[in-house]
Amino acid sequence: MRATTIHAPYDMRVEDVPEPVVQLPTDVVVRVLRACICGSDLWAYRGEASREPGQRIGHEFLGTVEETGAEVTGLKRGDLVVAPFMWSDGVCDYCREGLTTSCEHGGFWGSEGYDGGQGEAVRVPFGDATLVKLPKEAASDDRLLSALLTLSDVMGTGHHAALGAGARPGATVAVVGDGAVGLCAVLAAKRLGAERIIALGRHEVRTDTARSFGATDVVAERGDAAVEAVRELTRGQGAHAVIEAVGTEQSMNTAVNITRDGGAIGFVGVPHGSHTGLDLSLMFDRNIALRGGVAPVRTYIPDLLPDVLNGTIDPSLVFDRTVDIEGVPEGYKAMDERTALKVLMTNG
Quick check: 219 and 151 in contact, CB under 8 A? Predict the structure, then answer.
């Protein structure tokens, strides 16, 4: 089969690799229909996260069940399923508590020795616990498939950030970052009842999407100017709930400085670069809470799925370019050069 591999910074290839097969009785083999490129994949692409030459890549996919292990009871050949960006066993202490990303036997797609999502098929460990079954009829609806694919990562991650920040009815929410996660966080905050949503971003096409997702205000400035603009919009107080969806020191400092006293920051931007400037004394003095981290999207999918299926939320707009599997390397280039927000990969 064909699969995307990484060999060095900026060296992505689509190569022939062995077809996945059931190795353990809890395995499921999924034939991929849709996958995509994540902003976090770019850290490996740019050489800022280490990978072995030839390692698989990609962690967001959905598809149809092709083969199941002897102990798999909840899935059968032909089922349409979506995979969260990490697999989990569903029975360990962390899974039972809903923190599936800390599963004692879990893992991340594209880890050494495992398939990546940007390929034609994937071996899924703990298939019953990891995969979520979707209505079969969704397979014939391209827009719906794209929306469902966001449940594998960005929509669930945006939801995690909104929950961590305390988005709620009547609250003012500010979202730092106009990438796919930040945009999904706007959608999540709106879904949770936020009264006012301030999107911080400089790219007009993206902030237009933020407005369509529920943003009431847009701040294009950065740094101190952004802090001043948000405070002007909030009577000098800042936002009750702030979502940090970038992962840099500057973005986190902006998040702290636009948070209202007694408010909270939900951070889901994958940290990169220095974070030595975070002022814990300021956060302490102003009673600012910090919550977030790797989103346990497997826990959130059952809650978000009905709203995607009935159209209450439609995160499919985060995809602005579509390629087939052979076009994935160009998709990386487009996202790295910021000529694409999020690239969708289709198989058939």
Answer: no
